[in-house]
Amino acid sequence: MVIGDGAYIKKINRSLILQKIIEHEFISRAEIAKITGLNKATISVQVADLLNEKLVQETQQEHNTVGRRPIMLSINGNAGYVLGIDLDFKEIKFQIADLQGNIVEVNTMAIHTEVYEEVLYILVEEIRNYKEKYSTSHYGLVQTIIGVHGTVNNDEWIQFIPRLQWSNKDLKSDIEREIDIDISIENTANLSIFAERVYKYPDSDNMLGIVLGSGIGAGIINDGKLVKGHDGYAGEIGHMIIFPFGQECRCGNSGCWELYAAESVVFSQLMEKLDRPSLNYHDIKQLLAAEDPETYDVMRNFISYISIGLNNMINSYNPETLIINSELLKVYPNAIEEIVANLQSSVCVYGQIVLSDLGKDASVLGASALAIQNFFEVKEVVFSREEVLA
């Protein structure tokens, strides 16, 4: 039982009711009372407030039985919108979602600059355009969350983005100085694992999400909560040493995992071995289908190096669900089976290892979902991806 002053208890009850409406999509007042243990009077007052604030809407459920049709409550999706952004090297992805988590629009913009001030200008202009476009809704654009492929501290300062060579940038304040809107900055690996839990594995409280790309990052969920560490830098696993005295890394160490198991390493090796100026995922898929020996050799080494790092991560965190987000592994037949075969230690214990279905959309999906959770001030949100993308 929650004990505290009236305003605090009211806030807790409001959050609980909202969370159940989000979780069930359509739910009656009686069902809320049964699930939460709150009395009908409390629910009646809280729901009246939510209806008045246009956060919740009523609909009558259709059924074939005799009697009064129950009035169902649901989130008023059109009351406001959120913007999720994935700020990547050479492109920016923008995703608008309504307050029910439904994806309204997705746009990807190529960028031809790495200069901070120029990218800042692009972001400000695009966010301003989205804010204006959705200003006719009751709450407008309620929050924007930007995912970056680098380290972000607990104050949301960008500590370092390797591919853009940005250090110590206060992107949040720089944007908020230009636009009156709530901005939040987060690491893309954290957003990706958040998306996996919201859309795919809501019942899994201990999760590891490994994101393979130009580097390697991890999102960690322990006891249902995102693990960020003392300063916010938890998950920089690409710089875990797997080969003492190995290749030198730009971080200052030698033998870092991402020097051997990042997707960019595979592309570089294959372009050199095959004397190709460029390669994409489809090219590698075709080479594997043609059973090209050099491609298979590089990919098998890639699998081996991934397995070494995963063994370390599993022994450190004992995850229930380990999700690998890699477009390259998707084109390699039986990738997960080979990885599992490499994890033979009797102390390497985990629940399941899977490839991510969310892929390159994971970061913006996580950003939008987190923005909705922040707006409603609820403990967690759960959405069905099939429904939101319908």
From TrEMBL:
<keyword id="KW-0119">Carbohydrate metabolism</keyword>
<protein>
    <submittedName>
        <fullName>Xylose repressor</fullName>
    </submittedName>
</protein>
<dbReference type="GO" id="GO:0042732">
    <property type="term" value="P:D-xylose metabolic process"/>
</dbReference>
<comment type="similarity">
    <text>Belongs to the ROK (NagC/XylR) family.</text>
</comment>
<keyword id="KW-0859">Xylose metabolism</keyword>
<dbReference type="InterPro" id="IPR043129">
    <property type="entry name" value="ATPase_NBD"/>
</dbReference>
<comment type="function">
    <text>Transcriptional repressor of xylose-utilizing enzymes.</text>
</comment>
<dbReference type="InterPro" id="IPR049874">
    <property type="entry name" value="ROK_cs"/>
</dbReference>
<dbReference type="Pfam" id="PF00480">
    <property type="entry name" value="ROK"/>
</dbReference>
<dbReference type="InterPro" id="IPR036390">
    <property type="entry name" value="WH_DNA-bd_sf"/>
</dbReference>
<dbReference type="InterPro" id="IPR036388">
    <property type="entry name" value="WH-like_DNA-bd_sf"/>
</dbReference>
<dbReference type="InterPro" id="IPR000600">
    <property type="entry name" value="ROK"/>
</dbReference>
